[in-house]
């Protein structure tokens, strides 16, 4: 076999086409069709009741809190919301599916034809969402040797399944889609979306075709992708696998493959497990799910400005770099902090400065003390007050960092710290001229070496002396200006 | 005088008045079960200890003059598809043998609250699939009027127990006629409420969009009392109706003057002559008392049976998927998962249940759904519209309950013949309407004949009112099933020993 070509070379000829099916657990107190509680890591089968166990005679009744959360996502993705959607039964036998069917939605899903604006590099890419539907999670089966253990704590946890159009062009784009969706659902406070806890799960449909080709290639479905890292790794692996098959003159089989993260490869599921006719039909135990005007208006009223919108606004309105804007919208609390700080700034142009202080000083201090942004001891208005002191020359940037540190630690207002400790910047030329004169007189040798001998490096020495004399309070611009005059060059 | 055939109201009133204790009433019932049921086969389980404790509780409350609930001390039997906490529930199937549920059905809750004594669980066709109770995996139940005949089904244990005085009333379920048809066969009253009137929480599901729980009683007044106890909204059943529940007993005014009775021609085409004569006599009696008749047509009736036998099996095939041997009930030994499923379900389900699972699975297959299940639902809509239109011209619709009186065991060996026994009753379920069967005479062989009334949605009141008039005009009066009279031990109000009826007690 010849030396395998690098992926980049393959991709000059081949175009990957990727669609994702993402399951997001919704953060309700109780399950989608029963009052049984939800909690990660509870002892196996402790979060069950007759309904969760699928006992004969039990009936589902829909938890309306689920609808609220799902609608937030529907509205945030500009989806069409069905006024009457329907639950359908999806049948298959497996020990962790207690009823022998999963209650899902089939031909009448809650949301259709939405889109998600994905941050890719510095720009947004609009990815079409075919549908977002509601369903119940299954339980969990673990195999220990010849024994299988079923834990039904997860059975009945509410899920939304988000299905994209097949229009992601690379493993990296798929990864960014997952990050953007993760950011959005956390932003909307509808899910913790912790992939390690299975609260966000991804299946990927992957195919490749020659560039310029219109028809989609045969696809394979990858299941069991459980981390952001694996999303990209698994998809990239699949792209390479398919290209190699096609380049060797073979054909891609339509199949479902399980990603094995430990081995870094996928393997087809046994056909027995996937040869299912799900026999969907409308669940006769559940009436149509009705979304009325009252629910919609409450959703619309309370919907926050979305991360993609802020990402653009921060760049356009505040001149913030794409990287910084992306960091700021990484978490709603951080973006909210930024907006509150900017709102407190007297001018329109405080954004960049505030962003700089947030992303360096504030985030540094928060990380160091492992404190979430939402519980920052330094209020956004306090940060703005400090930024203003630096901007109007009351204190220098260097002193500003000192004041930041003290204010963060003690909660004292920056202006009070400056006043109490006498940290105001000295910009009075008379005062500075007198100090400079004194320093030059005391260091005649160095002054001569600089002025006559051309030793440029000594200029810094004199700035340092002035700063030492003034405990750093000398206005650096005026100091430098006066020093040049006094030293003759 | 024995309490065995007392009405529900009489039983409760006499206990409340201190004429007799709840324990005495129960012991009479238990003694009668011991004497009669080995022959009749109505009960699958008798909860002797639980019933005695409940009766003692009523007597205790009575002793301290605590207020007694409306059905205090009334012995009631439950069709074995109703889930009972701590009391085995089999749905007439081997697959559930030995299953002891951890919760009570909503109707069982309601009956207990109303003071009723749950005597035990009565036989039925497996998972309520059948019209003769011959599909029970446990035992046949005989018709108290003629032991060679079936009691009807699927609530055959319920109708037989009530007719034979082995309880004051019973609950059944009706998916395509399973309350009304056995009521007609056993000469008792059977009421199928409006879909959603009574909660299905705790009813082992056959066909979710058709199933409804209702009373089988010896009188229309008793049906009203039991319905009162079990009706009403339940948030645990999403198809339960949040509608006010009227006072059903007040409906029994005995007045049908001006009542417009619809006679749909499609329901008078094929039936036994004796059934036709009895139904005509019933209509005449109503007219005599001031009712009017309206000839009308329900044109889509001919398609009801086909639609029903697609919808009901489709839903059943789905509802029965949970019987997989994993969490409850019987599990067969096997070396792998697929084999475990196949063996458990292969051994656990009887032939009729398997037939319907296969029918339903086929109807829901991808690519066949539109042609079968969806088409059947469209027919269902047309049938509903037929009734909506008909009720613009009449207040209640009257038909025979069944084309014939009770048939002999084994007479309907071909499943399709058996399905045809429900031809008059299943439209009512497809349309979600209330229906009642009231006895209206006996055949020359001494077998009961039933007449069926169908009402507007939530209009059980009119059914009870008209049913009460039929009962007093052409009902069976004090006639009791002769076949079991000889079996009944003389009335004795003593504590019998161990009660072990013809099932596993």
Entry summary:
The complex is a heterodimer of chains A (489) and B (505). Chain A is α+β, with helices and mostly antiparallel strands and 489 residues long. Helices cover 41% and strands 19% of the residues of chain A.
Shape of chain B: globular
What is the CATH C-level name of chain B? Alpha Beta
Cα radius of gyration of chain A in angstroms: 31 Å
Major sheet attributes of chain B: 11 strands, mixed
Give an account of the 3D structure:
- The complex is a heterodimer of chains A (489) and B (505).
- Chain A folds into 3 domains: 7-299, no CATH class; 305-421, no CATH class; 429-487, Orthogonal Bundle (Arc Repressor Mutant, subunit A).
- In chain A, 41% of the residues lie in helices and 19% in strands.
- Chain A has 17 helices and 16 strands.
- Chain A has helices at residues 7-13, 64-76, 171-187, 228-247, 271-274, 293-302, 307-318, 322-328, 332-343, 351-368, 380-391, 397-410, 414-421, 429-442, 444-451, 458-469, 476-487, and strands spanning 14-25, 80-81, 84-85, 88-91, 101-104, 111-120, 123-136, 140-144, 147-151, 158-164, 200-210, 220-225, 256-260, 265-268, 281-282, 289-290.
- In chain A, the strands form 4 sheets. In chain A, strands 2-6-7-10-1-11-12-13-14 form a 9-stranded mixed β-sheet. In chain A, strands 5-4-15 form a 3-stranded antiparallel β-sheet, with no helix packed on it. A two-stranded antiparallel sheet of chain A has the order 3-16.
- In chain A, helix 9 crosses helix 11.
- Chain A is elongated and about 95 Å long.
- The termini of chain A are far apart.
- The model of chain A has no long low-confidence stretch (mean pLDDT 93).
- Chain B has 15 helices and 11 strands.
- With 505 residues, chain B is an alpha/beta fold.
- Chain B starts with 7 loop residues before the first helix and ends in a 31-residue tail after the last helix.
- The radius of gyration of chain B is 21 Å and the shape is globular.
- Chain B has one domain (3-301, 380-484): Alpha-Beta Complex (Amidase signature (AS) enzymes), CATH 3.90.1300.10.
- Chain A binds chain B through residues 50, 53-62, 89, 91, 93, 95, 98-101, 148, 150, 272, 277-281, 284-287, and chain B through 82-83, 89, 91, 96, 99, 101-103, 105, 200-205, 207-209, 235-239, 314-315, 317-318, 320-324, 326-328, 337-338, 341, 361, 364-366, 369, 373.
């Amino acid at each position: 076999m010849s030396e395998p070509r690098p992926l980049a070379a393959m991709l000059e000829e081949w175009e990957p086409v990727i669609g994702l099916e993402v399951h997001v657990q919704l953060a309700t107190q109780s399950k989608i069709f029963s009052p049984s509680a939800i909690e990660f890591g509870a002892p196996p089968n402790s979060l069950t009741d007759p309904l969760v166990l699928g006992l004969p005679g039990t009936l589902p009744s829909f938890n309306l809190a689920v609808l609220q959360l799902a609608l937030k996502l529907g509205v945030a993705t500009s989806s069409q919301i069905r006024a009457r959607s329907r639950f359908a039964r999806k049948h298959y036998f497996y020990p962790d599916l207690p009823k022998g069917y999963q209650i899902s939605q089939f031909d009448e899903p809650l949301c259709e034809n939405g889109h998600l604006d994905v941050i890719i590099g510095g720009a947004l890419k609009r990815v079409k969402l075919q549908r977002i539907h509601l369903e119940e999670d299954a339980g969990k089966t673990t195999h220990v040797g010849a024994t299988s253990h079923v834990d039904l704590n997860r059975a009945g946890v509410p899920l939304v399944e988000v299905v994209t159009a097949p229009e992601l062009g690379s493993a990296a784009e798929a990864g960014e889609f997952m990050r953007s969706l993760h950011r959005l659902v956390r932003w909307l406070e509808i899910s913790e979306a912790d992939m390690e806890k299975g609260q966000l799960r991804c299946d990927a449909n992957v195919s490749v075709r020659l560039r310029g080709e219109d028809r989609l290639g045969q696809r394979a479905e990858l299941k069991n992708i459980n981390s952001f890292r694996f999303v990209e790794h698994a998809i990239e692996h699949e792209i390479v696998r398919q290209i190699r098959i096609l380049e060797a003159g073979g054909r891609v089989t339509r199949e479902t493959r399980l990603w094995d993260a430990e081995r870094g490869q996928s393997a087809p599921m046994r056909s027995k497990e996937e040869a299912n006719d799900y026999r969907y039909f409308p669940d006769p135990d559940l009436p149509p799910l009705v979304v009325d005007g009252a629910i919609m208006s409450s959703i619309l009223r309370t919907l926050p400005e979305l991360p993609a919108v802020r990402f653009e606004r921060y760049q356009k309105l505040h001149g913030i770099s794409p990287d910084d804007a992306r960091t700021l919208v990484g978490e709603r609390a951080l973006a909210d902090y930024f907006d509150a700080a900017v709102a407190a700034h007297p001018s329109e142009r405080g954004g960049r400065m505030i962003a700089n202080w947030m992303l360096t000083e504030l985030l540094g201090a928060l990380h160091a003390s492992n404190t979430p942004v939402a519980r920052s001891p330094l209020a956004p208005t306090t940060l703005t007050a400090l930024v203003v002191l630096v901007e109007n020359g009351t204190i220098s940037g260097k002193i500003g960092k000192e004041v930041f540190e003290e204010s963060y630690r003690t909660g004292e207002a920056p202006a009070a710290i400056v006043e109490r400790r006498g940290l105001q910047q000295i910009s009075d030329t008379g005062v500075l001229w007198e100090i400079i004169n004194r320093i030059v007189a005391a260091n005649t040798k160095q002054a001569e070496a600089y002025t006559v001998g051309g030793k440029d490096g000594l200029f810094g020495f004199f700035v340092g002396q002035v700063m030492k004399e003034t405990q750093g309070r000398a206005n650096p611009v005026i100091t430098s200006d006066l020093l040049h005059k006094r030293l003759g060059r | 005088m024995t309490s065995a055939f007392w009405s529900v109201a009489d039983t409760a009133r006499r206990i409340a008045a201190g004429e007799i204790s709840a324990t005495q009433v129960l012991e009479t019932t238990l003694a009668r079960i011991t004497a009669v049921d080995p022959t009749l086969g109505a009960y699958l389980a008798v909860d002797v200890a639980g019933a005695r404790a409940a009766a003692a509780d009523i007597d205790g409350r009575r002793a301290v003059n605590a207020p007694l609930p409306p059905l205090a001390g009334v012995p009631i039997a439950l069709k074995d598809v109703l889930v009972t906490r701590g009391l085995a529930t089999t749905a007439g199937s081997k697959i559930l043998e030995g299953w002891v549920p951890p919760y009570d059905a909503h109707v069982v809750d309601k009956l207990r609250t109303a003071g009723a004594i749950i005597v035990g669980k009565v036989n039925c066709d497996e998972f309520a699939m059948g019209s003769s109770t011959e599909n029970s995996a446990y035992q046949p139940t005989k018709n108290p009027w003629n032991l060679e005949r079936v009691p009807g089904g699927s609530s055959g244990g319920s109708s037989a127990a009530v007719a034979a005085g082995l309880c004051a009333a019973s609950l059944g379920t009706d998916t395509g006629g399973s309350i009304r048809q056995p009521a007609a066969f056993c000469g008792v009253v059977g009421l199928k409420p409006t879909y959603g009137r009574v909660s299905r929480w705790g009813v082992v599901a056959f066909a979710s969009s058709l199933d409804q729980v209702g009373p089988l009683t010896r009188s229309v007044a008793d049906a009203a009392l039991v319905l009162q106890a079990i009706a009403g909204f339940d948030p645990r059943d999403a198809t339960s109706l949040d509608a006010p529940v009227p006072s059903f007993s007040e409906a029994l005014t005995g007045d049908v003057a001006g009542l417009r009775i619809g006679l749909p021609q499609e329901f008078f085409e094929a039936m036994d002559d004796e059934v036709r004569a009895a139904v005509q006599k019933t209509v005449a009696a109503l007219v005599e008392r001031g009712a009017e008749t309206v000839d009308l047509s329900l044109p889509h009736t001919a398609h009801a049976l086909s639609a029903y036998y697609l919808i009901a099996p489709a839903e059943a095939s789905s509802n029965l998927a949970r019987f997989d041997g994993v969490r409850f009930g019987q599990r067969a030994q096997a070396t792998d998962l697929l084999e475990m499923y196949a063996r458990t379900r292969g051994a656990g389900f009887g032939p009729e249940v398997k037939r319907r699972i296969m029918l339903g699975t086929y109807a829901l297959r991808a690519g066949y759904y539109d042609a079968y299940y969806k088409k059947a639902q469209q027919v269902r809509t047309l049938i509903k519209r037929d009734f909506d239109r008909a009720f613009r011209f009449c207040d209640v619709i009257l038909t025979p309950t069944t084309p014939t009186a009770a048939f002999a065991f084994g007479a309907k060996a071909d499943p399709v013949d058996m399905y045809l026994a429900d031809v008059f009753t299943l439209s009512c379920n497809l349309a979600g309407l209330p229906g009642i069967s009231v006895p209206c005479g006996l055949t020359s062989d001494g077998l009961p004949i039933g007449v069926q009334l169908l009402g507007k949605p939530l209009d059980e009141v009119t059914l009870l009112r008209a049913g009460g008039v039929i009962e007093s005009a052409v009902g069976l009066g004090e006639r009791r099933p002769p076949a079991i009279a000889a079996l009944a031990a003389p009335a004795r109000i003593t504590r019998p020993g161990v009660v072990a009826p013809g099932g596993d007690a």
